[in-house]
Amino acid sequence: MYSVVDEAEITDRRLLRGARTRQIVLRRAVDLASLEGLVGLSFGRLASDTGLSKAGVQTMFKTKEILQVATVDHAREMFIDAVINPIRSTGHGVPRLRAMVDRWIVYAETPLFEGGCFRAANLADYDSRPGPVRDALFRDRDEWLAFIAGEVRHAVVAGEIPDTDPDLTAFVVDAVLCAANTALRAGDPEVTDKIRRFVDATLAG
Amino acid sequence: MYSVVDEAEITDRRLLRGARTRQIVLRRAVDLASLEGLVGLSFGRLASDTGLSKAGVQTMFKTKEILQVATVDHAREMFIDAVINPIRSTGHGVPRLRAMVDRWIVYAETPLFEGGCFRAANLADYDSRPGPVRDALFRDRDEWLAFIAGEVRHAVVAGEIPDTDPDLTAFVVDAVLCAANTALRAGDPEVTDKIRRFVDATLAG
Protein backbone atom coordinates (compact mmCIF):
# COMPACT_ATOMS: atom_id res chain seq x y z
CA MET A 1 0.00 0.00 0.00
CA TYR A 2 2.57 2.54 1.14
CA SER A 3 4.63 1.82 -1.91
CA VAL A 4 1.64 2.52 -4.21
CA VAL A 5 0.93 5.87 -2.48
CA ASP A 6 4.57 6.85 -2.75
CA GLU A 7 4.65 6.07 -6.46
CA ALA A 8 1.51 8.14 -7.04
CA GLU A 9 3.05 11.02 -5.10
CA ILE A 10 6.25 10.80 -7.09
CA THR A 11 4.25 10.77 -10.34
CA ASP A 12 2.27 13.83 -9.18
CA ARG A 13 5.47 15.68 -8.31
CA ARG A 14 6.99 14.75 -11.65
CA LEU A 15 3.92 15.92 -13.55
CA LEU A 16 3.89 19.19 -11.60
CA ARG A 17 7.59 19.72 -12.26
CA GLY A 18 7.00 18.89 -15.93
CA ALA A 19 4.15 21.38 -16.16
CA ARG A 20 6.26 24.11 -14.50
CA THR A 21 9.19 23.46 -16.84
CA ARG A 22 6.82 23.63 -19.79
CA GLN A 23 5.55 27.02 -18.57
CA ILE A 24 9.11 28.33 -18.25
CA VAL A 25 10.00 27.18 -21.78
CA LEU A 26 6.77 28.58 -23.28
CA ARG A 27 7.21 31.90 -21.47
CA ARG A 28 10.65 32.26 -23.07
CA ALA A 29 9.29 31.07 -26.43
CA VAL A 30 6.63 33.81 -26.39
CA ASP A 31 9.26 36.49 -25.70
CA LEU A 32 11.53 35.21 -28.46
CA ALA A 33 8.65 34.92 -30.92
CA SER A 34 7.46 38.46 -30.13
CA LEU A 35 11.01 39.71 -30.80
CA GLU A 36 12.21 37.56 -33.69
CA GLY A 37 9.11 35.75 -34.92
CA LEU A 38 7.77 32.23 -34.46
CA VAL A 39 9.70 31.16 -37.57
CA GLY A 40 13.01 31.59 -35.75
CA LEU A 41 12.10 29.50 -32.67
CA SER A 42 14.48 26.60 -32.08
CA PHE A 43 14.87 23.89 -29.45
CA GLY A 44 18.56 24.76 -29.10
CA ARG A 45 17.99 28.46 -28.42
CA LEU A 46 15.20 27.74 -25.93
CA ALA A 47 17.40 25.19 -24.15
CA SER A 48 20.33 27.57 -23.81
CA ASP A 49 18.06 30.47 -22.71
CA THR A 50 16.32 28.41 -20.00
CA GLY A 51 19.28 26.28 -18.88
CA LEU A 52 17.57 23.02 -19.90
CA SER A 53 19.00 20.38 -22.19
CA LYS A 54 18.10 20.55 -25.87
CA ALA A 55 16.97 16.90 -25.71
CA GLY A 56 14.71 17.77 -22.75
CA VAL A 57 13.01 20.63 -24.64
CA GLN A 58 12.69 18.49 -27.77
CA THR A 59 11.09 15.61 -25.80
CA MET A 60 8.57 18.09 -24.37
CA PHE A 61 7.30 19.33 -27.76
CA LYS A 62 8.36 16.65 -30.29
CA THR A 63 8.30 18.94 -33.38
CA LYS A 64 8.97 22.60 -34.06
CA GLU A 65 5.40 23.00 -35.34
CA ILE A 66 3.92 21.67 -32.08
CA LEU A 67 6.19 24.08 -30.17
CA GLN A 68 5.04 27.00 -32.36
CA VAL A 69 1.32 26.20 -31.89
CA ALA A 70 1.84 25.81 -28.11
CA THR A 71 3.62 29.20 -28.10
CA VAL A 72 0.66 30.85 -29.87
CA ASP A 73 -1.74 29.32 -27.32
CA HIS A 74 0.42 30.47 -24.41
CA ALA A 75 0.62 34.03 -25.79
CA ARG A 76 -3.16 33.99 -26.26
CA GLU A 77 -3.71 33.01 -22.58
CA MET A 78 -1.31 35.73 -21.39
CA PHE A 79 -3.08 38.30 -23.58
CA ILE A 80 -6.50 37.29 -22.17
CA ASP A 81 -5.11 37.57 -18.60
CA ALA A 82 -3.63 41.01 -19.30
CA VAL A 83 -6.26 42.68 -21.49
CA ILE A 84 -9.60 40.82 -21.34
CA ASN A 85 -10.01 39.36 -17.82
CA PRO A 86 -9.47 42.69 -15.99
CA ILE A 87 -12.34 44.34 -17.91
CA ARG A 88 -14.95 41.58 -17.57
CA SER A 89 -16.68 43.51 -14.77
CA THR A 90 -16.73 46.81 -16.73
CA GLY A 91 -20.09 47.61 -18.33
CA HIS A 92 -20.65 46.47 -21.92
CA GLY A 93 -20.29 48.80 -24.90
CA VAL A 94 -18.27 52.03 -24.87
CA PRO A 95 -17.04 51.74 -21.22
CA ARG A 96 -15.67 48.25 -21.85
CA LEU A 97 -14.13 49.26 -25.20
CA ARG A 98 -12.38 52.22 -23.57
CA ALA A 99 -11.16 50.03 -20.68
CA MET A 100 -9.96 47.47 -23.23
CA VAL A 101 -7.89 50.07 -25.11
CA ASP A 102 -6.42 51.33 -21.79
CA ARG A 103 -5.38 47.78 -20.89
CA TRP A 104 -4.05 47.23 -24.40
CA ILE A 105 -1.84 50.33 -24.15
CA VAL A 106 -0.38 49.03 -20.86
CA TYR A 107 0.08 45.62 -22.51
CA ALA A 108 1.93 47.09 -25.49
CA GLU A 109 3.92 49.72 -23.55
CA THR A 110 5.10 47.68 -20.57
CA PRO A 111 5.45 45.36 -22.60
CA LEU A 112 4.13 41.97 -21.52
CA PHE A 113 6.25 40.34 -24.23
CA GLU A 114 9.80 41.51 -24.92
CA GLY A 115 9.05 42.37 -28.53
CA GLY A 116 5.61 43.93 -27.94
CA CYS A 117 2.31 42.65 -29.36
CA PHE A 118 2.69 38.97 -30.18
CA ARG A 119 -0.15 38.94 -32.69
CA ALA A 120 1.17 41.93 -34.62
CA ALA A 121 4.67 40.44 -34.71
CA ASN A 122 3.57 37.12 -36.17
CA LEU A 123 0.37 37.42 -38.24
CA ALA A 124 2.08 39.09 -41.19
CA ASP A 125 4.82 36.43 -41.16
CA TYR A 126 2.31 33.62 -41.44
CA ASP A 127 -0.33 35.04 -43.76
CA SER A 128 1.43 33.38 -46.73
CA ARG A 129 2.30 30.12 -44.90
CA PRO A 130 -0.71 27.77 -44.62
CA GLY A 131 -0.66 25.22 -41.81
CA PRO A 132 -1.45 24.68 -38.12
CA VAL A 133 0.62 27.68 -36.94
CA ARG A 134 -1.19 30.11 -39.23
CA ASP A 135 -4.51 28.51 -38.22
CA ALA A 136 -3.72 29.05 -34.52
CA LEU A 137 -2.70 32.67 -35.14
CA PHE A 138 -5.83 33.46 -37.15
CA ARG A 139 -8.10 31.64 -34.68
CA ASP A 140 -6.71 33.91 -31.95
CA ARG A 141 -7.16 36.98 -34.17
CA ASP A 142 -10.75 36.07 -35.09
CA GLU A 143 -11.62 35.58 -31.41
CA TRP A 144 -10.16 39.01 -30.60
CA LEU A 145 -12.02 40.69 -33.52
CA ALA A 146 -15.27 39.00 -32.42
CA PHE A 147 -14.78 40.31 -28.88
CA ILE A 148 -14.37 43.90 -30.14
CA ALA A 149 -17.28 43.57 -32.60
CA GLY A 150 -19.51 42.23 -29.80
CA GLU A 151 -18.83 45.29 -27.63
CA VAL A 152 -19.36 47.65 -30.60
CA ARG A 153 -22.73 45.93 -31.16
CA HIS A 154 -23.61 46.55 -27.50
CA ALA A 155 -22.65 50.22 -27.91
CA VAL A 156 -24.86 50.56 -31.02
CA VAL A 157 -27.85 48.82 -29.41
CA ALA A 158 -27.49 50.98 -26.28
CA GLY A 159 -27.42 54.10 -28.48
CA GLU A 160 -23.95 55.05 -27.21
CA ILE A 161 -22.59 55.41 -30.76
CA PRO A 162 -24.30 55.90 -34.14
CA ASP A 163 -25.36 52.81 -36.10
CA THR A 164 -22.24 51.32 -37.63
CA ASP A 165 -20.94 48.01 -38.97
CA PRO A 166 -19.46 46.27 -35.88
CA ASP A 167 -17.22 43.96 -37.93
CA LEU A 168 -15.77 46.86 -39.91
CA THR A 169 -15.20 48.91 -36.73
CA ALA A 170 -13.51 45.92 -35.06
CA PHE A 171 -11.29 45.50 -38.13
CA VAL A 172 -10.25 49.17 -38.01
CA VAL A 173 -9.67 49.20 -34.21
CA ASP A 174 -7.48 46.09 -34.44
CA ALA A 175 -5.60 47.53 -37.43
CA VAL A 176 -4.84 50.75 -35.53
CA LEU A 177 -3.65 48.84 -32.44
CA CYS A 178 -1.37 46.63 -34.60
CA ALA A 179 0.13 49.69 -36.31
CA ALA A 180 0.45 51.42 -32.93
CA ASN A 181 2.44 48.45 -31.62
CA THR A 182 4.90 48.75 -34.50
CA ALA A 183 5.17 52.53 -33.98
CA LEU A 184 5.67 52.04 -30.20
CA ARG A 185 8.49 49.56 -30.77
CA ALA A 186 10.10 51.97 -33.23
CA GLY A 187 10.00 54.71 -30.56
CA ASP A 188 7.27 57.01 -31.97
CA PRO A 189 6.54 59.24 -28.92
CA GLU A 190 3.11 60.38 -30.15
CA VAL A 191 1.56 56.98 -30.66
CA THR A 192 -0.33 56.64 -27.34
CA ASP A 193 -1.85 60.06 -27.94
CA LYS A 194 -2.81 58.96 -31.50
CA ILE A 195 -4.59 55.85 -30.16
CA ARG A 196 -6.58 57.92 -27.65
CA ARG A 197 -7.62 60.49 -30.26
CA PHE A 198 -8.63 57.69 -32.64
CA VAL A 199 -10.71 56.01 -29.90
CA ASP A 200 -12.35 59.33 -28.95
CA ALA A 201 -13.32 59.91 -32.61
CA THR A 202 -14.51 56.32 -33.14
CA LEU A 203 -16.52 56.03 -29.92
CA ALA A 204 -18.02 59.54 -30.00
CA GLY A 205 -21.77 59.58 -29.38
CA MET B 1 41.84 56.48 -80.17
CA TYR B 2 39.88 53.47 -81.45
CA SER B 3 41.22 51.31 -78.68
CA VAL B 4 40.12 53.89 -76.07
CA VAL B 5 36.61 53.98 -77.55
CA ASP B 6 36.44 50.19 -77.55
CA GLU B 7 37.51 50.00 -73.94
CA ALA B 8 34.90 52.56 -72.97
CA GLU B 9 32.26 50.60 -74.89
CA ILE B 10 33.27 47.37 -73.19
CA THR B 11 33.12 49.07 -69.80
CA ASP B 12 29.67 50.49 -70.64
CA ARG B 13 28.40 47.07 -71.65
CA ARG B 14 29.83 45.51 -68.50
CA LEU B 15 28.23 48.15 -66.32
CA LEU B 16 24.92 47.67 -68.10
CA ARG B 17 25.08 43.89 -67.69
CA GLY B 18 26.04 44.36 -64.02
CA ALA B 19 23.10 46.70 -63.48
CA ARG B 20 20.70 44.23 -65.15
CA THR B 21 21.96 41.34 -63.04
CA ARG B 22 21.58 43.49 -59.94
CA GLN B 23 17.95 44.20 -60.91
CA ILE B 24 17.24 40.49 -61.37
CA VAL B 25 18.72 39.63 -57.98
CA LEU B 26 16.91 42.48 -56.22
CA ARG B 27 13.59 41.58 -57.87
CA ARG B 28 13.90 38.05 -56.48
CA ALA B 29 15.05 39.41 -53.10
CA VAL B 30 11.91 41.58 -52.86
CA ASP B 31 9.67 38.56 -53.56
CA LEU B 32 11.46 36.40 -51.01
CA ALA B 33 11.41 39.17 -48.40
CA SER B 34 7.68 39.77 -48.95
CA LEU B 35 7.08 36.04 -48.41
CA GLU B 36 9.56 35.08 -45.73
CA GLY B 37 10.89 38.37 -44.40
CA LEU B 38 14.12 40.30 -44.95
CA VAL B 39 15.67 38.45 -42.01
CA GLY B 40 15.70 35.21 -43.98
CA LEU B 41 17.42 36.61 -47.12
CA SER B 42 20.64 34.79 -48.00
CA PHE B 43 23.22 35.00 -50.79
CA GLY B 44 22.96 31.23 -51.30
CA ARG B 45 19.19 31.21 -51.78
CA LEU B 46 19.29 34.21 -54.15
CA ALA B 47 22.07 32.58 -56.16
CA SER B 48 20.19 29.29 -56.57
CA ASP B 49 16.90 31.08 -57.38
CA THR B 50 18.48 33.29 -60.06
CA GLY B 51 21.01 30.82 -61.46
CA LEU B 52 23.98 33.00 -60.51
CA SER B 53 26.96 31.92 -58.43
CA LYS B 54 26.84 32.59 -54.70
CA ALA B 55 30.23 34.34 -54.95
CA GLY B 56 28.82 36.56 -57.72
CA VAL B 57 25.83 37.64 -55.61
CA GLN B 58 28.08 38.18 -52.58
CA THR B 59 30.50 40.34 -54.59
CA MET B 60 27.57 42.46 -55.73
CA PHE B 61 26.32 43.34 -52.21
CA LYS B 62 29.31 42.61 -49.91
CA THR B 63 27.22 42.12 -46.70
CA LYS B 64 23.77 40.79 -45.89
CA GLU B 65 22.85 44.16 -44.38
CA ILE B 66 23.72 46.02 -47.60
CA LEU B 67 21.62 43.48 -49.52
CA GLN B 68 18.68 44.01 -47.13
CA VAL B 69 18.81 47.81 -47.42
CA ALA B 70 19.07 47.56 -51.25
CA THR B 71 16.04 45.23 -51.19
CA VAL B 72 14.01 47.77 -49.17
CA ASP B 73 14.97 50.52 -51.64
CA HIS B 74 14.04 48.35 -54.62
CA ALA B 75 10.64 47.48 -53.09
CA ARG B 76 10.08 51.19 -52.39
CA GLU B 77 10.74 52.07 -56.06
CA MET B 78 8.40 49.32 -57.27
CA PHE B 79 5.69 50.53 -54.86
CA ILE B 80 6.04 54.11 -56.11
CA ASP B 81 5.78 52.89 -59.74
CA ALA B 82 2.69 50.82 -58.97
CA VAL B 83 0.73 53.03 -56.56
CA ILE B 84 2.01 56.62 -56.58
CA ASN B 85 3.17 57.45 -60.13
CA PRO B 86 -0.14 56.44 -61.85
CA ILE B 87 -2.11 58.90 -59.68
CA ARG B 88 0.15 61.94 -59.99
CA SER B 89 -2.18 63.48 -62.57
CA THR B 90 -5.33 62.88 -60.49
CA GLY B 91 -6.58 65.98 -58.65
CA HIS B 92 -5.34 66.54 -55.10
CA GLY B 93 -7.41 65.63 -52.04
CA VAL B 94 -10.26 63.11 -52.05
CA PRO B 95 -9.98 62.13 -55.76
CA ARG B 96 -6.28 61.33 -55.38
CA LEU B 97 -6.84 59.48 -52.08
CA ARG B 98 -9.55 57.34 -53.67
CA ALA B 99 -7.35 56.65 -56.72
CA MET B 100 -4.50 55.76 -54.37
CA VAL B 101 -6.60 53.20 -52.49
CA ASP B 102 -7.79 51.72 -55.82
CA ARG B 103 -4.18 51.34 -56.96
CA TRP B 104 -3.20 49.94 -53.55
CA ILE B 105 -5.91 47.26 -53.80
CA VAL B 106 -4.58 46.19 -57.22
CA TYR B 107 -1.04 46.24 -55.78
CA ALA B 108 -2.01 44.01 -52.84
CA GLU B 109 -4.37 41.72 -54.75
CA THR B 110 -2.35 41.04 -57.89
CA PRO B 111 0.12 40.97 -56.01
CA LEU B 112 3.17 42.90 -57.18
CA PHE B 113 5.28 40.95 -54.67
CA GLU B 114 4.75 37.22 -54.14
CA GLY B 115 4.00 37.65 -50.42
CA GLY B 116 1.86 40.79 -50.74
CA CYS B 117 2.64 44.19 -49.22
CA PHE B 118 6.38 44.39 -48.59
CA ARG B 119 6.09 47.07 -45.92
CA ALA B 120 3.46 45.17 -43.91
CA ALA B 121 5.51 41.98 -44.12
CA ASN B 122 8.69 43.54 -42.75
CA LEU B 123 7.99 46.55 -40.50
CA ALA B 124 6.78 44.43 -37.56
CA ASP B 125 9.85 42.18 -37.88
CA TYR B 126 12.23 45.11 -37.58
CA ASP B 127 10.52 47.37 -35.05
CA SER B 128 12.62 45.76 -32.28
CA ARG B 129 15.88 45.55 -34.32
CA PRO B 130 17.67 48.91 -34.53
CA GLY B 131 20.06 49.44 -37.47
CA PRO B 132 20.21 50.50 -41.12
CA VAL B 133 17.54 48.00 -42.27
CA ARG B 134 15.00 49.26 -39.76
CA ASP B 135 15.94 52.85 -40.64
CA ALA B 136 15.33 52.18 -44.36
CA LEU B 137 11.96 50.52 -43.63
CA PHE B 138 10.79 53.36 -41.41
CA ARG B 139 12.07 56.03 -43.82
CA ASP B 140 9.89 54.41 -46.51
CA ARG B 141 6.92 54.21 -44.11
CA ASP B 142 7.29 57.86 -43.03
CA GLU B 143 7.41 58.99 -46.68
CA TRP B 144 4.21 57.01 -47.41
CA LEU B 145 2.43 58.43 -44.32
CA ALA B 146 3.50 61.96 -45.30
CA PHE B 147 2.08 61.44 -48.80
CA ILE B 148 -1.32 60.37 -47.40
CA ALA B 149 -1.33 63.16 -44.79
CA GLY B 150 -0.54 65.73 -47.51
CA GLU B 151 -3.56 64.66 -49.57
CA VAL B 152 -5.81 64.63 -46.46
CA ARG B 153 -4.63 68.20 -45.79
CA HIS B 154 -5.59 69.16 -49.36
CA ALA B 155 -9.03 67.58 -48.83
CA VAL B 156 -9.56 69.54 -45.60
CA VAL B 157 -8.41 72.86 -47.11
CA ALA B 158 -10.67 72.31 -50.15
CA GLY B 159 -13.59 71.60 -47.80
CA GLU B 160 -14.04 68.09 -49.22
CA ILE B 161 -13.97 66.49 -45.75
CA PRO B 162 -14.54 67.92 -42.25
CA ASP B 163 -11.56 69.40 -40.38
CA THR B 164 -9.50 66.48 -39.10
CA ASP B 165 -5.92 65.71 -38.02
CA PRO B 166 -4.15 64.69 -41.28
CA ASP B 167 -1.39 62.78 -39.46
CA LEU B 168 -3.90 60.77 -37.44
CA THR B 169 -6.00 60.02 -40.54
CA ALA B 170 -2.87 58.94 -42.45
CA PHE B 171 -1.90 56.68 -39.55
CA VAL B 172 -5.35 55.04 -39.54
CA VAL B 173 -5.51 54.64 -43.36
CA ASP B 174 -2.07 53.01 -43.41
CA ALA B 175 -3.01 50.77 -40.46
CA VAL B 176 -6.16 49.57 -42.25
CA LEU B 177 -4.25 48.87 -45.49
CA CYS B 178 -1.59 46.89 -43.58
CA ALA B 179 -4.26 44.82 -41.81
CA ALA B 180 -6.09 44.37 -45.11
CA ASN B 181 -2.93 42.98 -46.68
CA THR B 182 -2.66 40.35 -43.94
CA ALA B 183 -6.36 39.50 -44.28
CA LEU B 184 -6.01 39.28 -48.10
CA ARG B 185 -3.07 36.87 -47.81
CA ALA B 186 -5.03 34.77 -45.35
CA GLY B 187 -7.89 34.54 -47.86
CA ASP B 188 -10.52 36.77 -46.20
CA PRO B 189 -13.01 37.27 -49.09
CA GLU B 190 -14.63 40.41 -47.60
CA VAL B 191 -11.52 42.47 -47.18
CA THR B 192 -11.69 44.55 -50.39
CA ASP B 193 -15.27 45.44 -49.53
CA LYS B 194 -14.13 46.39 -45.98
CA ILE B 195 -11.45 48.74 -47.37
CA ARG B 196 -13.97 50.47 -49.66
CA ARG B 197 -16.52 50.93 -46.88
CA PHE B 198 -13.79 52.27 -44.58
CA VAL B 199 -12.64 54.73 -47.27
CA ASP B 200 -16.23 55.83 -47.94
CA ALA B 201 -16.76 56.52 -44.23
CA THR B 202 -13.39 58.26 -43.80
CA LEU B 203 -13.63 60.46 -46.90
CA ALA B 204 -17.32 61.33 -46.56
CA GLY B 205 -18.02 65.03 -46.98
Brief account:
The first copy, chain A, has helices at 2-36, 43-50, 54-61, 64-84, 94-109, 118-126, 132-157, 166-185, 191-202.
CATH class of chain A: Mainly Alpha
Helices and strands of chain A, in N-to-C order? Answer: HHHHHHHHH
**Most extensive interface, residues per chain?**
A-B, 38 and 38 residues
The structural class of chain A is: mainly alpha
Average pLDDT score of chain A: 89
CATH architecture of chain A: Orthogonal Bundle
CATH homologous superfamily descriptor of chain A: Tetracycline Repressor, domain 2
Tally of individual domains of chain A: 1
Coarse shape of chain A? elongated
Taking the alpha carbons of the first and last residues of chain A, their distance comes to 70 Å
Beta fraction of chain A: under 5%
Report the count of strand segments of chain A.
Answer: 0
Q: Quaternary status of these chains?
A: homodimer
Largest sheet of chain A: none
Determine the CATH topology of chain A.
Answer: Tetracycline Repressor, domain 2
- Total helices of chain A: the number is 9
Provide the gyration radius of chain A in Å.
Answer: 20 Å
Give the % helix of chain A. over 70%
Indicate the low-confidence ranges of chain A by residue numbers. Answer: none
